[in-house]
Write a structure and sequence with these properties.
It is a single chain. By secondary structure, this protein is mainly alpha-helical. It is built from twelve helices and no strands. The chain has helices at about 5-20, 20-40, 45, 50-80, 85-90, 95-125, 130-145, 145-160, 160-180, 190-195, 200-215, 220-250. Helix 4 packs parallel to helix 7 (about 130-145) and helix 4 (about 50-80) packs antiparallel against helix 9. It is globular, with a radius of gyration of 18 Å. The relative contact order is 0.15.
């Protein structure tokens, strides 16, 4: 069986296992929409402006992918490592990348599903009206720019145990979400926070997705930053995974 076929099998069974805990699925699906309803809809100046509403909707889409990457990968990977089944899987001849690809694919399915109610609410209750091609481009880039968040999740899941993973993931999510300007527009940040925020991968993802949705120029610093974060985190994730394998499964 090829690596891709193994990855598809892992993804399918990851989704089946997740669906057996309905509250876990509902939490992933509802959380971004709930944040949008609590942070955006109560503000008439935001929901009544096409530009502000589109930016806020894009921020919540980035949040949906970020939270799914951190929680689904970070906590799920840490829990899997603590169970006897996963060490057994890692002794089999199948490529380790198949298991990670399967988990990434299952997380992507949940993230895309969580985006649907968010877009429906945004379309019904705000003036967010991006051009169709801009909207499709923004959605595609939301998927691509979620890579650093997913890699951070893999690092958390590889380097921590199940209990520690929950705490570390929660701290990381709030730091990245608030620091990245997902809950509060960066235009309202003080100067020092705005400068510091520009170095966060989530802020860079937000700038790319928002500007594409609005049909405006994407800042070069955001593109360079997201590429750099993806390369560095990929390297660190591979080192951490091999280090874990050398310690536990040699």
């Amino acid at each position: 069986m090829s690596t891709l076929a193994l990855a598809a099998t892992h993804a399918r069974y990851n989704l089946v296992e997740t669906s057996r805990v309905p509250i876990a699925v509902l939490g992933s699906l509802v959380f971004p929409s709930l944040a949008f309803c609590l942070f955006v809809l109560p503000q008439p100046a935001v929901r009544g402006s096409a530009e502000f509403a589109t930016a806020a909707l894009c921020s919540m889409v980035v949040f949906a992918f970020m939270s799914a990457g951190l929680f689904s990968l970070g906590i799920e990977l840490a829990e899997q490592r603590a169970k006897p089944w996963t060490p057994y899987l890692r002794t089999l001849p199948g490529a380790a990348s198949a298991r990670i690809l399967g988990l990434l694919s299952a997380t992507l399915v949940i993230s895309v599903t969580a985006m649907v109610p968010l877009l429906v609410i945004g379309g019904l209750f705000t003036q967010a009206r991006p051009e169709p091609l801009d909207a499709l481009g923004a959605i595609a880039l939301a998927v691509v720019t979620a890579a650093p968040s997913g890699l951070i999740g893999i690092l958390i899941g590889t380097l921590t145990g199940p209990k520690a993973a929950i705490a570390v993931t929660q701290v990381a999510m709030f730091l990245l979400a608030f620091g990245g300007g997902l809950f509060l527009p960066p235009q309202l940040f003080p100067r020092w926070l705005d400068v510091a925020s520009a170095f966060l991968p989530v802020r860079q993802a937000r700038e790319i997705v928002v500007n594409v949705a609005l049909g405006t120029a994407v800042p070069l610093w955001a593109v360079i930053g997201i590429v750099a974060w993806t390369l560095v985190l990929s390297l660190v994730a591979v080192i951490a995974y091999r280090r874990d394998e050398g310690r536990r499964y040699r």
